[in-house]
Design a protein that fits this description.
The protein is mainly alpha-helical. It has three helices and no strands.
Length: about 80
Amino acid sequence: MAERIIVLLICVAMLAYCDVPQLKRSGLREKLLYGACFVFFGYMMTSFIADAGWPTLNEVLNLLLREPSKQIVAWLQS
């Protein structure tokens, strides 16, 4: 677990080093988008460190969009 934390801290440090100067000059939309991406990254990072097996983005989208996509395909085939 310590190795995972070290690797992720290195990744976060590299992201901060590269992105913080550009974020200071960016607008509100860019900052909000970056924050939303970082929240998702934090969720995935916590799941990885804890080896929790929490749902990934692919699983969530599959759960939400499976039925509508089946309905669209059925409509197109008819």
